[in-house]
């Protein structure tokens, strides 16, 4: 009976465990970025994207949404795509000013989420923004070195950048109605 209860408790935390695993993947991600191993960066970003997909799918399908998950999932998403973007910025693939504005937006949204009792749920456009940033980072680090892929990576980056501010306006509008 105790084993069954513990297994049920563990299963109810699978989405949170997936989000936490994404945070732990950050350490090898930074290492592989620093020692210039784009193939391993590519693989880790794919794994990170899959954990993001499955933590949300499992949480929704089995009604396992938690307050901790509402904090962990967006945090691990941000950390997981912003670290490679910082590296891309450092190596002049993307402009510093754009990454600075993205970081500024993330700070504002995090502050809004923390100041609202029930949090601020992710919008569909916000999910698209995250998707575009993940695809951009994956495409930048693909092992295939084709100019077209770099151009596609930039297109996905700028689409994510635009949605960064479209969603900021949407969240500000929602927050205004909550107050």
UniProtKB/TrEMBL annotation:
Transmembrane in keyword set: yes
Membrane topology listed for this record: Multi-pass membrane protein
Keywords: Lipid biosynthesis, Lipid metabolism, Membrane, Phospholipid biosynthesis, Phospholipid metabolism, Transferase, Transmembrane, Transmembrane helix
GO BP annotations listed: glycerophospholipid biosynthetic process
GO cellular component annotations of the record: membrane
UniProt-listed Enzyme Commission number(s): 2.7.8.5
Leader sequence segment: none
TM stretches of this protein: 12-32, 39-59, 79-104, 125-146, 152-172
Stored PROSITE patterns: CDP_ALCOHOL_P_TRANSF
Main localization of the protein described in the UniProt heading: membrane
Keyword Transferase: yes
Single GO MF annotation: CDP-diacylglycerol-glycerol-3-phosphate 3-phosphatidyltransferase activity
Database matches in Pfam families: CDP-OH_P_transf
Subcellular location: Membrane
Enzyme class, UniProt record, top EC level: transferase
InterPro entries registered for this protein in UniProt: CDP-alcohol_PTase-I, CDP-OH_P_trans, CDP-OH_PTrfase_TM_dom, CDP_ALCOHOL_P_TRANSF_CS, Phosphatidylglycerol_P_synth
PANTHER family: CDP-DIACYLGLYCEROL--GLYCEROL-3-PHOSPHATE 3-PHOSPHATIDYLTRANSFERASE 1, CHLOROPLASTIC (PTHR14269:SF62), CDP-DIACYLGLYCEROL--GLYCEROL-3-PHOSPHATE 3-PHOSPHATIDYLTRANSFERASE-RELATED (PTHR14269)
Similarity annotation: Belongs to the CDP-alcohol phosphatidyltransferase class-I family.
Protein name per its UniProtKB record: CDP-diacylglycerol--glycerol-3-phosphate 3-phosphatidyltransferase
Lineage: Bacteria, Bacillati, Cyanobacteriota, Cyanophyceae, Synechococcales
């Amino acid at each position: 009976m105790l084993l069954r209860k513990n297994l049920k408790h563990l299963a109810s935390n699978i989405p949170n465990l997936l989000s936490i695993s994404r945070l732990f993947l950050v350490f090898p991600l930074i290492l592989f970025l620093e020692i210039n191993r784009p193939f391993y960066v590519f693989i880790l970003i794919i794994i990170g994207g899959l954990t993001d997909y499955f933590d949300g799918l499992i949480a929704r399908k089995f009604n396992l949404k938690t307050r901790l998950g509402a904090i962990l999932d967006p945090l691990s998403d941000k950390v997981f795509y912003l670290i490679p973007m910082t590296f891309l910025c450092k190596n002049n693939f993307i402009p510093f000013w754009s990454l600075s504005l993205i970081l500024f937006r993330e700070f504002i949204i995090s502050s809004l989420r923390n100041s609202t009792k029930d949090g601020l749920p992710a919008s569909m456009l916000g999910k698209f923004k995250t998707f575009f940033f993940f695809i951009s980072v994956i495409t930048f680090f693909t092992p295939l070195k084709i100019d077209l892929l770099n151009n596609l990576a930039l297109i996905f980056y700028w689409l994510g950048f635009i949605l960064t501010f479209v969603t900021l306006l949407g969240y500000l509008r929602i927050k205004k109605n909550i107050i």
